[in-house]
Amino acid sequence: MVNLTRIYTRTGDGGRTRLGDMSETTKNDSRLHAYADVDETNATVGLAVACGGLEDDVVAVLTHVQNDLFDVGADLCTPVVPDPEFPPLRVEQAYVDRLEGWCDTYNADLPTLRSFILSGGTPGAAHLHVARTVARRAERAAWAAVEEHGASMNLLAVTYLNRLSDLLFILARHANRAQGDVLWVPGGERGTDQTTTDQSTTDQSTTDQSTTDEEARP
After folding, report:
1. What is its EC number (predicted)?
2. pTM of the full predicted structure?
3. How far is CA 184 from the centre of its chain?
């Protein structure tokens, strides 16, 4: 049980803090960057819930995700050690499986993509696209921590962030399904009409954007 009697402590004013195992480190430690970005991801998901006008079932999924993200942050902040006296909270495969199940459920009724899509549409979709990009940043920060700290990091926490960005992409499309996705039109193909709305189903790939747009970005 968490019991916060006072919010400010002054203990971090020297630029140092403690991890979940009470070991001391700098506030510029890559672990801190990772779980700070997870915290920001959680805040953006909360904004989508509060302002997005989303369906009740989607709100329930996202509320579950917000709780999961506290678990992810707790995991990233506590180094993995063999045979701990008090086993800490860890992200397990079931967390990832649950995300993949939601991805499959909400993607099943969406039109197959034939292009990348523009972030936007309904307020809910726009907020979810912002949350998706922040989750991607959190994943990159977590991988940076893995590179620095190696086996003391739980890779399933990083995998969770990857699948979460996929889910947020799918839920953004789900929020736009009534009006359709607004497709990216490459520069050489754009005329006076700058956007194309997609309600079609084609044979091309479905949810590649959440991965490919990240790989294409420097």
Report:
1. 2.5.1.17
2. 0.80
3. 22
Least confident of 74-88, 161-175, 187-201: 187-201
- Tell me the C-alpha distance between 56 and 11, whole Å: 41
In sequence order, which ranges of 77-92 are alpha helices (DSSP H)?
A: none
Helix 123-149 and helix 155-175, axial crossing angle in degrees, nearest 10 = 170
CB atoms within 10 A of CB 215: 7
Q: Give the residue, 205 or 198, on which the prediction is more confident.
A: 198
If pLDDT is split at 50, 70 and 90, which confidence band does 205 have?
very low
Distance, CA of 38 to CA of 135 (rounded, Å): 7
Is residue 130 within 8 A of residue 61, CB to CB? The reply is no
Q: Which of 73, 68, 74 is nearest to 89 (CA)?
A: 74
List pLDDT tens digits, range 58-101: 999 999 999 999 999 999 978 777 877 778 789 999 999 999 99
Q: How far apart are CA 51 and CA 122, in angstroms?
A: 11
Under 8 Å between Cβ of 130 and 193: no
Domain ranges of the chain: 27-79+90-216
Task: Please name the CATH architecture into which domain 27-79+90-216 falls.
Answer: Up-down Bundle (1.20)
